[in-house]
Amino acid sequence: MxxxxxxxxxxxxxxxxxxxxxxxxxxxxxxxxxxxxxxHMDWQHSGMExxxxxxxDVSLANRGGFIQIKxxxxxxxxxxxxxxxxxxxxxxxxxxxxNLHLRTRWLWLPWQSYRQTFHAEPQPRYHYFPFDAFxxxxxDTPFAPRQLKTIAVVAIGRAFTADVCVREMGFYSRLGxxxx
Length: 180
Known about the structure:
By secondary structure, the protein is mainly β. It has strands at 8-15, 26-29, 38-44, 51-58, 66-72, 86-93, 97-104, 113-119, 125-130, 135-137, 148-156, 160-174. The chain has a single domain (8-174), classed as Jelly Rolls, CATH 2.60.120. It contains no helices and 12 strands.
C-alpha cells in the first residue's frame, strides 16, 4: 500500500499531544431520545492508544443505536478551509466500522448529517475523507465546508461494543493542488 501521507499537507485541528486542542471533545448517545446506548470518552496519554477514545455499547433498544464523540468547529478553524481537499483522522480501534459525521450550520434536525464510513483497525493509521465524498443523510442541502459546525466519530446502526481512539484530526490538501 502506497504511503499517501508524503503527498499530503496536514493542518491539524486536534492532536493528542497538544493540550490546547484536547478540551473541545464532547460525548453524546441515544439516551437523549430514549435509547439505551452508553458512550464513554476516555483519554489515553501514553502508548499506542494515545488520544481521545470513544468507548461504550451501542444498543438498538427503544429505537436507539448510536454513541459519538464530537468536535465543535469554530470560525477560526475555518479560516483557510477553501484550500483543503477534506478531513483526515489518525485513528485505531477494535476493527469495527465507524462513521465520520459532519454537520453544518444549515442543518436543523439532529439526525441530518453528511457521512463517510471507516474501519478502525488495531494499528493506528490515517483515514482520508474528501469533502466531495460525504454522503448527505436525510437532507437535500449540499455540503458546504465553510458552514461546518461539528465533526463526530460515531458508532451507529447495529448493536456492538465500540472502542476507537483518535490521535489526530484535521484538514488535508494534496500537494500541488490548486483551488480556483
